[in-house]
Amino acid sequence: MSVHGGNIVAMARALGCEVKDLIDMSSNLTPLAMVPGLREVLVQGIEEIAFLPETESENLRQIFARKFNLQEEEVLVGNGTTEFIFALPHLFAGSRAIIVNPTYSDYRVACSWAKIPAMDFMLPPEQDFHLDLDRLAREFQGGELVFICNPNNPTGALTPSQELYDFILRHPATSFLVDESYLPFTREKSLLHYDLPPNLFVLFSSSKIYGIPGLRLGFLVARAANLQAMTLQRKPWGVNRMAQIAGEYLLEHADPYVEVVRQFIERERFLFVDLLQKINNIRVIPGKANFILCYLQGEILAAELREKMLDKKIMIRNCASFDGLDEHYFRMSLKGREENIYCLKVLQEIL
User: Fold this and answer.
1) The pLDDT of residue 12 is above 90
2) Res 322 pLDDT > 60
3) Domain harbouring 19, CATH code
4) 315: phi then psi, degrees, rounded to nearest 5
5) What pLDDT is recorded for position 8?
6) What is the pLDDT of residues 143-164, one digit of tens each?
7) Is residue 2 part of a domain?
8) Fewer CB atoms inside 10 Å of the end CB: C or N, the chain?
9) Same-domain check for residues 263 and 249
10) pLDDT at 5 over 80
11) CA-CA distances (angstroms) from residue 55 to 2, 121, 228, 236, 241?
């Protein structure tokens, strides 16, 4: 089964409160408000739900390809990146998968559904879950599909894109699915700006950086020949019209917003981590993303901490469900300054 954070609507219902009363630090979304102008664009386009969306999101696909200097045939638009995470293993002709863990649980679920054996490549906690590419290469036999989230969820560890790209080029017999869902929160260059090698698939998510997970909009980029089989087996109208409208607007107008978010993360993460490290019984795992992984060193474990935080209407992520982590780990996503300070105050009181 998939195990995720978030689910704020169900949590509000369970707690008997309004969604607006909760501070959701369990979902790794932008800490800022909706992209300026997006609400108005969606309102203006609401009448367009009266007819079918574009079959393959043709206009959105063209805009994305133009933005990243790609060919249209190298881009697929989907109902969130989840669509592609589950589709690719079904079409993969290789013998097995390698999952760099701890990481996003749906990679394993997707391989299980596709009946592809998946090997765990575990990142060592004593090295703060840093990805050692040379050690990873020693596991290659040829014909495997490797799942890499960069920066990784939940650790926040970032592998420099140039190093990762050079590594992929050195191993042409191995295929790589690189999930860049959290890369826009950093200043690291996307693999979309490099020449696409034939063994690379890249995921681009709209949910996290733009804060629109409810619209379900994601992109898969690869060589046209690698996408052909998937294109032939996709359902028509896989992306709803409101998501298409939102995506068209965001790709063309949201770059200034993304820069503001990056500046905010750089400033707030430094402050948040500095204060967090002063709280007893918490060890912060170094990372670069918009979320922070922590290790509890005292008697309170993550499950109990989660419940005590919920008493204060704060949602955090118990990370015991991640392969390679245990009941001492929890994760928090940055929010606004006032919410971050309140969260730290509550943590201090509990611990």
Assistant:
1) no
2) yes
3) 3.90.1150.10
4) -100, 125
5) 79
6) 999 999 999 999 999 999 999 9
7) no
8) N
9) no
10) no
11) 28, 38, 16, 5, 10
Residues 297 and 282 sit within 8 Å (Cβ to Cβ): yes
Domain carrying residue 304: 8-34+256-350
Q: Do residues 178 and 264 share a domain?
A: no
Out of 225, 253, 281, a domain closes at 253
pLDDT tens per residue across span 294-315 = 999 999 999 999 999 999 999 9
Give residue 208's Cα distance to chain centre: 7
Tell me, yes or no, whether 245 and 269 share the same domain. Answer: no
Cα(114)–Cα(179) distance, integer angstroms: 19
The distance of Cα 134 from the centroid of its chain, to the nearest Å, equals 24
SS3 label, residue 301: coil
The pair of structure tokens assigned to 148 is 């890499």
1 assigned to some structural domain: no
**E-only strand ranges, 190-303:** 200-205, 218-221, 282-285, 291-296
- Written as six digits, the tokens of 70 are 């790609």
* Domain closes at, from 253, 271, 301: 253
Average pLDDT, the chain: 95
pTM above 0.90, yes or no: yes
